[in-house]
Amino acid sequence: MAELKVDKILPATGSSVSLSESGKTVLIPSGATIDASAATVTGMGAKVDYCSSLKTSPFTASASRGYFINTGSAVTVTLPSSPSVGDQVIVIDATGNASSNAITLAGNGSKIKGQCGNAELQTDRVGVRIVYSGSSQGWLTATSANETAPTLATAQYVAASGGTETTSGNFKIHTFTSDGTLTVSSGGNSLGSNTVSYVVVAGGGATIGYNSRGGGAGGYREGLGLNDSYTGSPLRNPTGVPVTASPGSYPITVGAGGTGGTSNYPSTATTAQKGNDSIFSTITSTGGGSGTGGSVTRPSAVANGGSGGNGATGNTPPVSPPQGNNGGSGGGGGAGEAGDTDGPGQGGDGVSSEITGSAVTRAGGGGGGGGVGGDGGGGPSTGGSTPTFVAGTNGTANTGGGAGGGSDWTSSAGPNNASGGSGIVIIRYKFQN
């Protein structure tokens, strides 16, 4: 083999030197190096400089840099803004704890693997080299070590069907006004959504009797799913309910309002009923307690409930945050306050939530005879002690409102019983970015 030994090769004309012809191979022997420290080498991959100190807190990466991450705690790496095609960043779990303390790659306005949002490295000792490919697909994995799907995890979202389906921005809403099933086809992940927000309201309690008292509102329970944001009620739990595609079917029970008892004086009367429970997954809201008769005794079912009928206990059985309040001496309890809070015989107010995209008040207690119903509850019932007959008022359907009491001082005036309002179940989650 012929050898050519020179110290420097310069072009005879122009500014470039060709080492070979197109289609030929120039061999770099084992052990030999190409020193690019004083020049730019193209067509052989860009040089990457490594930051030798371990990164222990969030930082913004620079193009053509490599970083060693101390995963003793979770670290967020914000990728370069306004990257150019071919820019690359290398990230390495140097301490082997990424499975418990994930390294988050924040897109900083660019996509990662074709998706908007962030990605996570979740495997111990993982190392990845990502290269910016352009605005369509963004940052892509070029090489990796110890990476197995879903190590570089991108956002996935809950997908489901059932009930009446609507959307509000990037959120999907399922409203159930009667029994049904929420069918989940994707459980999502923590980067997108994997829990759902909910409002579960039980049926309100009924009333019976002459100059009768108000029924209690159905129990009200609300929770906030992952990556969700809306104006909720004061009773909202800060966490939502997790859902998965297996088993995927979540039966929904929407409680009916309690049935009003009969009051045909002076004959015997039938019982006024408490409301029925509403159920979604692990969340059960208890039916509202029934209101009792006044000047003439009439029977009623258990007066305790989500909110109590007059004189009875709410938040029964107890949950936190509470699902309702006690009844007053005349007004039924509501989700927002006890009965009689606003005056004798006044039903307790309900609470407002914008889970559907607009504010709606639900779970108000029924007013007693002579009082008015709380927000969402039965009322007004303004009979009081006057000799004028005023019929009881049904609780509003699909709000869980308690029934409003009525008055009857003549035997020919007819029945004054009323039924509670039916409940509702609302499910909401982020379904896109």
In short:
The chain has strands at residues 49-55, 59-60, 65-69, 75-78, 88-93, 103-106, 119-121, 127-132, 139-145, 153-154, 158-161, 164-168, 171-176, 180-187, 195-201, 220-223, 236-237, 241-242, 249-253, 278-280, 283-285, 351-353, 360-362, 424-430. The chain is mostly beta strands and 433 residues long. Mean pLDDT is 83; it is low at 379-387 and 409-414.
Helix-residue proportion: under 10%
With helices defined by DSSP (H or I, 4 residues minimum), what is the helix count? 0
Largest sheet: 7 strands, mixed
Average of pLDDT: 83
Amino-to-carboxy terminus distance:
63 Å
Q: Total strand count, please?
A: 24
Computed structural class = mainly beta
Question: What is the 3D form?
Answer: rod-shaped
Radius of gyration: 34 Å
Fraction in beta strands: 15-25%
Low-confidence stretches: 379-387, 409-414
